[in-house]
Amino acid sequence: MRKLVVITLTLSVFLFVSxxxxxxxxxxxxxxxxxxxxxxxxxxxxxxxxxxxxxxKWVKLGNTAAIREAVLAGEVDAxxxxxxxxxxxxxxxxxxxxxxGLSVCPVGLVAESSEIPDFGSLRKDHRIALPQPxxxxxxxxxxxxxxxxxxxxxxxxxLVTMKHPDGMMALLSGAVDAHFTSPPYIFMExxxxxxxxxxxxxxxxxxxxxxxxxxxxxxxxxKDRPELLNSFLTALERAVDFIGARPEECARILAGxxxxxxxDILRYITYPGMKYTTEIKGLxxxxxxxxxxxxxxxxxxxxxVLYEGLRD
Amino acid sequence: MKRSRIEGSIIWFxxxxxxxxxxxxxxxxxxxxxxxVTVILRSFAFEWGSGExxxxxxxxxxxxxxxxxAGGIGAFIISALSFQFDAVKRLSGMLTAVLHPLPGIALLPxxxxxxxxxxxTLLVVxxxxxxxxxxxxxxxxxxxxxxxxxxxxxNYGLKSAAFFFRIMxxxxxPHILSGLKTAWARxxxxxxxxxxxxxxxxxxxxxxxxxxxxxxxxxxxxMYAGILMLAILGIIVESGLxxxxxxxxxxxxxxxx
Amino acid sequence: xxxxxxxxxxFGYPGFPxxxxxxxxxxxKDEILCIIGPSGCGKTSLLNIAGGFTPPEGGxxxxxxxxxxxxxxxxxxxxxxxxxxxxWLTVRRNVAFPxxxxxxxxxxxxxxxxxxxxxxEMYPSQLSGxxxxxxxxxxxxxxxxxxxxxxxxxxxxxxxxxRELQNMLLDLRLEFSVSMMFVTHDIREAxxxxxxxxxxxxxxxxxxxxxxxxxxxxxxxxxxxxxxxxYKLISAGRS
Lengths: 312, 257, 239
Description:
By secondary structure, chain A is α/β, with parallel strands linked by helices.
């Protein structure tokens, strides 16, 4: 019996230890218009072009927690996410760095304007759908709640965790009263009729412009393969430039991926407030707010999370 | 035999914990995803001390017991009617065949549409997860009642209600019990996973929410503390409660389950 | 005095030759009528009709001035089934099962009479075959029936146990003055218990009074003689 236990457990360990090889790089992929540059980068093979000897693997992960776990497990080398989840990981001791900005987006809190005409009329008993606590949407809501209502945790008891499409359905069916969301859902909700309007914009909540999605890389990846990282950043830059220079072609590529009409995509990616840029915006404010409100506890600073190559 | 079974489980459990500790401390994997057992236990003690873990546990248990009770009563009524009326039997057979294989999570959008977002929906998910296996087991139990019992009942002048409660129900008990065991396992999973799909913060979540939330905020030891709590409750109910019921009933009666 | 009478009973299954064609039999007060015959001769069918579990196709059953009454507490059947006790009840509760509110105390006396006082708190699964049948019969006596209908109740038991239970039945008859219809295919058992025999064969039915005294010795010449006579009648009726 005892012997059997030991043998089984020992064997099972090997299932978890995966083989890493030096000839490939794995990038966590996400869906959403805010991630458009990475879809372009993938479709146009910008990265592969620069590093023909490497195999680029794209994996799709459900949420930021899964990305963190994949990075910790050594399964993912780089990926894209909001600043707050990146900071939470770094705060807990994860060795990963912010390597680039990706997009600035018109995110916001959408509600039925007859019921909730402005942020001031949002009550504690209103239900608010957003992706998850600790997400950028949650942090933005807390920031606005602190500034305008004096209590950052005012709505923490009103949150309902839902993915964007579910959140939109919940808002339209009346199951929730407000939805803190991002493109394209925010556009659909605003333009779909039914009297839904953005009652709190992201910039307004944040008090300025901020990076909605940023790129990160695993510390080991940065340290061991700096040239590869540079190529990755170059490819990302090219993808961002490509969107700016040839939005129609981008819209055509993205229309195939998102199964949305090309003209809608074009309108969305050129929407006022929608910007694809590698510039990182708002990092300091996020760190400050999240530290003040105990989301972060290790006294993290900007230089702790920024990739050294960017710190000049 | 019973003692050696318990010993066996303890050996397995201890070996697992030992292996966990070794792997965690070996540096093969990050402690951020696999914290040492000692750290998890400390976190467990902390969460228990703060009351968060107990409240989550009680909420989850409350939901599961409410769901099993409501589902159980429903399944009982449907099974009894099916036993009596062929039309009901066909309907419930059809519904069971269609709905039983569907995970409650898959039906969540429909439930939300009808019941909104909140405790009612969570309860409906749990009821959905328990009612079909219960109907299947209770109906199987009713069908398994020896034909001679009906004659004995009529010989002693039992009316239908008395026959049902004094003979049918206890005679089906082994099946009902195994149905309840399935129901417990499924209700527990449904409660936990439904909370992971949609959670309501602040207003109090159960253990599923506890684990989810710890994961989101990357409190990995806290997350494992929640999972440990889930496992402990599973053992208590499975080997404790159900074992006790079995010892007092089917094993004592000498009837197979 | 007749407690139950079956008159011109006909019974069969569609598409098969009739199982019972014009069978008439009466059961007297305190009488033990043993019904004997080869398998398939309709013994059990006749008992089921007497108990009200199967309606006859022709003829009638008269009991307590009722014609073809439904099953009831005054005619209790001991079925030919080894699982008649409820496994979830102790022996005591099994025996008390048919009692109406307020009558539960009488089960102690019955348990004593069938010799199960010591085993009252055991569950059926813990009992031997003989003890099970004792409990079944004690339960059958709980509603104080006028008639016990027994369908080969001791077939599965070994010979000494069978004799003990036969004697127990005889004691119960004295104690409660209950009449019995007892189906068996064991000639010796029939001759040992019966006041009267109903011999059922494909060739027809035939009654026979047993004139032996109550203290019967199965090895006595008279006993063996009757046994042989019954055997001949059954064999003759088969052809």
